[in-house]
Amino acid sequence: MTIRSVQGWSLIEKEETDSTNEDVKKLPPGSDKTAVCACIQTGGHGRMGRRWISPAGNLYVSLCLEKIPPAQAGIYSFLAAVALMQAIEKLCPGLQMHCKWPNDLLINGKKVTGILLETDGVDRLIVGIGVNLIPIDESRLLYPVTSLRQEGFDVDKTDLLEALLESFGQWQIRLKTQGKEPVLSAWKRKACGIGGSVTVNLPDRQLRGTFYGLDQDGCFLLNKEGEILKITAGDIFFGRTEKN
Ligand code: BTN
User: Fold this and answer.
1) What is the distance between the terminal CA atoms of the chain, rounded to a whole angstrom?
2) Nearest of 103, 93, 95, 235 to residue 168 by alpha carbon
3) How far, in Å, is the centroid of ligand 1 from the Cα of 204?
4) 64 and 31 in contact (C-beta within 8 Å)?
C-alpha cells in the first residue's frame, strides 16, 4: 500500500482489496479528501446490491467526503458523473458520451462507468467510481457494456485518476459557490433520452412513460399519461421494452 498526495487529495493505492468503498468506510475520522484506489477488487459492488466485476486493468476508486450537509448528498451523484465525464473527455478527445440517470456514463448506449454513493451512517459520504478501461465479460450483465479500449482509447489509469480528482475538486468548488444548478445543467446537457419513452423498474413494480426531466434535486420525473411521477431510485431502460 502507498499513500501520496494528488490534486489536493490524499490517495491510498492498494494492489488488491475487497471493495474500495468498504475501505473508505473504515478510514479514521478526519479523512475528508482521502481517496482509496485498488488494482483488483474481490468484492466490488454496485447499485441495488449488484456485483461489480473488478479484474485488473480497470479503475476502481472511492472518495471520502466528510461533513456534507444531508440536503447536498444526492447532488454528488450528478457531480461525480459530470466530473468523471470531463476527466474522460480530457483524455479521449472527440469521444461522445452521454449521462444516464442517475449516474451512469454511456458510449453509444453502452455503460462504461459506474458510480455508487454510500454513507457510513454518520457524516461520511463515499463516492465509489469504476471505469472500464479494458473489455470485461458482459455475459451476465443487465446492460450492454463497453470499455474505453473498445471505443478506441488506451487510457493510462493514473492519468485518468489524476484528471478525475482534479475535476471532482473543481466541481465541488462550483457547487459550494454556485449551488446545484450548474451541476444539474451540465448533467442535462449530456443526458440521453429526455422526452423519449422509458421503462422504470422499481423494486416492486414497473412503470412506463416518457422521461420528462429532473427536479431541482435530481429526482427522475416520469410523465405517465400526463401525470408527473417523481422517482428517487430505480433502473431506467430506454424504450418500451417488454423484456425488463
Ligand atoms: C453501479 O453502476 O452499479 C455502480 C458501480 C460502482 C463500482 C465502484 S468500483 C469502486 C467502488 N468500489 C465498489 O465496490 N464499488 C465502487
Assistant:
1) 42
2) 103
3) 23
4) yes
| Grid cell listed for 29 | 475520522
- Residue 188's contacts (CB-CB under 8 Å, 6 or more residues apart) are 194, 213, 214
Q: How far apart are CA 118 and CA 63, in angstroms?
A: 10
Place of cell 477488487: 41
pTM higher than the cut 0.90: yes
Name 33's Cβ contacts closer than 8 Å, sequence gap at least 6: 8, 9, 10, 63, 64, 65
- The answer to whether 34 and 9 have CB atoms below 8 angstroms apart is yes
User: Which stretches within 62-180 are classed as H helix?
Assistant: 70-73, 75-91, 157-178
The least confident of 148-152, 166-170, 230-234 is 230-234
Mutate to test the pocket of ligand 1, among 11, 13, 21, 157 (most ligand atoms within 8 A of CB): 21
Which residue ranges form the domains of the chain, and what is each CATH number?
2-189 (3.30.930.10), 197-238 (2.30.30.100)
Kindly report, residue by residue over 160-194, the tens digit of the pLDDT: 999 999 999 999 999 999 999 999 999 999 999 99
Question: In the structure, which protein residues have their CB atom closer than 6 angstroms to any atom of ligand 1?
Answer: 19-21, 41, 44-47, 50, 52, 60-62, 114-116, 128-130
Pairing of strands 34-41, 98-100: unpaired
Confidence of residue 240 (pLDDT cuts 50, 70, 90): low
